[in-house]
Automatic annotation (TrEMBL):
Belongs to the LytR/CpsA/Psr (LCP) family. This is LCP family protein. Gene3D superfamilies: LCP protein. Residues 117-274 form the Cell envelope-related transcriptional attenuator domain. Pfam families: LytR_cpsA_psr. InterPro entries: LytR/CpsA/Psr_CW_biosynth, LytR_CpsA_psr.
């Protein structure tokens, strides 16, 4: 199993309890001053969808994103779809009033494009019992049953049926309840990170070279930026640099390391946001809202935000599904995929998110 990734702690200008109290007092003052409507207006800038009304493609229109190059059969087994037999899973879906699961769905589409496969799927969990926040990445190359369609990569569910089908796919296969969804336009993240003054991240030398476009070739597609002086160790990244880093799947273990990078960027951004002054926070929220699409009501979002503030969380733990030892690699339908042991993954998720075995 993975070792929990701890966020880097940043020195704060005031104690956490004092900052929480200050923010609460400001919110109370705003509401008392009649600004509650402004808060609702700000949240209304988010795009909203009704998952049940999202368009779905017909099963006979489903498609498979085949890989241009594949490993040989001596390297990775090549299997027929009917060779994959799924174990009978526990039909119960885990739900707890003290545990909130919000699925963050990354979209990296270009202007004018419609709904695409989910570029990343990160489950943000608020556990009020343990006073913890967890980020769990679902590997997009996992090969799973998709309700109403053929088995496919898990990220196909979003392209086929939006939030509703992706939630159904995760709940059916992994036995955890999804309370809400937020689609994130990651291309807009660079503006938010710049507004926070950048973020601090540890980079390997290879990652630093990738961002700066050094030794440019197939693995280093970035245009060279000699003015970017990044090296191995802790670096202070701009929004553009952080976005390049989060998209990088060429350095390290392909999508495994890529999902770790995405979580690291989110955790560092969370840390930087907590250190922002109230005026900057308001500006960040205004800038962020149009980048988000959700199926949640404003009252839900406000409630979750207040819970996070009152918890006073100092760090965020991160995980990955499938964890090490919980999958096998295969080539199916001309796709190199990860075939998860669903029962192992279910038990692991219930343990880390809910603190319950099995």
């Amino acid at each position: 199993m993975d070792t929990n990734t701890k966020s880097q702690r940043r020195k704060k200008k005031m104690p956490v309890w004092a900052k929480i109290l200050l923010i609460l007092l400001i919110v109370m003052a705003l509401i008392a001053g009649g600004a509650y409507g402004y808060v609702r207006y700000t949240l209304s800038k988010m795009h909203r969808v009704d998952p049940k009304q999202e368009a779905k493609i017909a099963p006979n229109e489903e498609f498979f994103e085949v890989d241009e190059s594949l490993p040989s059969e001596t390297e990775v087994p090549h299997l027929n779809p009917d060779e994959i037999v799924w174990a009978n899973a526990d039909p119960d879906v885990m739900k707890d009033r003290d545990v909130v699961n919000i699925l963050l769905i990354g979209q990296d589409r270009r202007e004018g494009e419609g709904r695409q496969r989910s570029d990343s799927m990160i489950l943000a969990t608020i556990n009020k019992k343990s006073q913890s926040i967890y980020l769990t990445s679902f590997m997009r190359d996992m090969y799973v049953p998709i309700p109403g369609y053929s088995d496919n990569r898990i990220n196909a569910a979003y392209a086929f049926g939006g939030m509703d089908l992706l939630d159904d796919t995760i709940e059916t296969n992994f036995g955890i309840h999804i309370d809400g969804n937020v689609e994130v336009d990651f291309s807009g993240f660079k503006t938010l990170i710049d507004m926070m003054g950048g973020i601090d991240l540890y980079l390997s030398q290879a990652e630093a070279d990738y961002i700066c476009g050094r030794n440019r070739n197939v693995l280093y597609p970035q245009a060279e930026r000699p003015d970017w002086d990044l090296s191995e160790g802790m670096n202070h990244l701009t929004g553009e640099q952080a976005l390049i880093h989060a998209r990088n799947r060429s350095i390290g273990n392909s999508d495994y390391r890529r999902t770790e990078r995405q979580r690291e960027v989110l955790i560092s951004a969370f840390t930087a946001m907590k250190s922002s002054d109230p005026i900057t926070l308001v500006a960040l929220i205004n800038e962020a809202m149009p980048l988000l699409t959700t199926d949640m009501e404003s009252s839900q979002i406000l409630g979750y935000a207040m819970e996070i503030l009152t918890m006073g969380v100092d760090d965020v733990q991160s995980f990955r599904i499938p964890a090490n030892g919980m999958y096998s690699s295969a080539v199916i339908r001309k796709m190199q995929v990860l075939v998860p042991d669903l029962n192992q993954c279910r038990a692991y998720l219930r343990e880390i998110l809910y603190g319950e075995a099995g």
